[in-house]
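Extended Data, panel c. Modelled sequence:
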Amino acid sequence: MLDELVREGRAKLINKYVSAEEEKLCFAACDVVLLPYLHHFGGSAVLSQAAAAGRMVIASDEELLGKQTRHHGLGLLFTTGDVAALRERMREAALMNTTKMAGYAAAAANYAKSCSRQAYREALIKAVVSPKML
């Protein structure tokens, strides 16, 4: 599937370290971010970066990453290690209409707001400061 998309000029495979500047450009240029982690337990900064860029994800359906993707409607899920399912989600994303893609972008924007420094600051203040002090 990926080779086919590359041949058609619809995808670019970068198999090297990318700088922080190149990384920003990659998020801006892509339509979908793949998060095919194997048995990943925690969260993912890449998920937050994808959301900040307004990009849908294709993620492993397990642990926190799967839960966040499912709960916030951030993209498509596949069972970890199931290559055929990953391939099918990639095909589904490549053929997705713009209306559905826009829905994922809106969900990403909402999720990104909850991951912002301002949201983090407000959550800390709320947890530490009693309402009477404000």
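The radius of gyration is 17 Å. This feature is highlighted in the accompanying rendering.
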